[in-house]
Please model this.
Amino acid sequence: MIRRKVRFLTPLFVGAILCHVFGQVRRPIEPNLTGFGSDAPSDAKPSPEEAFRAAEETIVQAEQQDEGVVPPTVIEEINRRLTTLQGVDPTHPWLSYLYGRAYALAGRTGDAIDHLRKFVETREGRNEWQAHRRLGDLFVAEFPRLAKASYDKALALKAGEPTALMGLSTCAYKTGDVDEALRLAQQAVDSDGRQTVRIVGHLTRMFTAKQQWADADRTAVLAMELAEAAVRKRPGVRGPVQTLDAQYDLVADLLQARIREKVAGAEDFVRLAGFIRKRNEVAARLALHDALKVLELGVNSTAPNTPARLQEQYAVTLAEVGRTEDAVVAFEKLLTLDPSNSTATDWLERLRSTPKP
Model:
């Protein structure tokens, strides 16, 4: 696969900076088996239902983030919500389910599995298809046969669920049954209505494994179009750009497989070269988002006395990644720090004259 190792250093480098600084500013939570923390929050105690809803909402928001690694401050907030829930209702029937999801977000796979297994044995968990699906997702990388049992239960509870079908397809592929993996992948895409990049991309990989080149190319193009549409729909958000980057990897893998199998034509080489060039543009956009994280951290760390130079770089990068409204606010703040700053006035004129999408 054509990948530049240097591209993978940037997220790791940025992550190291964020963890280091957050570790100094707000110590990340270190979960234990009974919960994410033991310190009782100082807030007045809510009702069990209010505590449950608050904890679930916080976890859902974290699960919907596209950034990959959940920031320590988010884990800390989840810890606070779960500690509150455990304090007001330690026998809440959905507590283990929330703990399992929280541990998964924190990268504690073993603990997540323990809690989800405990939950699916309860009356509530036995009939919760998402709990079985989540358990399958945790198993599938290393224990595909265990994952299959969980996905089967999820599918029995919610017939035609695309994510469960894709999970079963992954299990079949990992255990060597490529034909079954392809069949299930096709079912997943049909059930999904060909709307989800991840599911369509999985079908592309299965077509590639079967060397069904025309079908693989067709679905790879569809996955790319879906990813590009998501970027346009959510400008300024890193996650869709990262997904688009993954689709360039997928197309490159497909074309390289054709070259290895000696079935590539001249057009395949031209397309591969073109995708490599376009991928560099996407990589540059991801680098801007990574730079923005560092600058945002710097602004927050130096507030309320942020130097004008740092504020300027922060505002410019916000504008470059497409976060127009945030950039306008940042440039206006820059003018309060440096009223004669021409960069701020030029950018504000440009941003305010640009029609909203």
Summary: The radius of gyration is 23 Å.
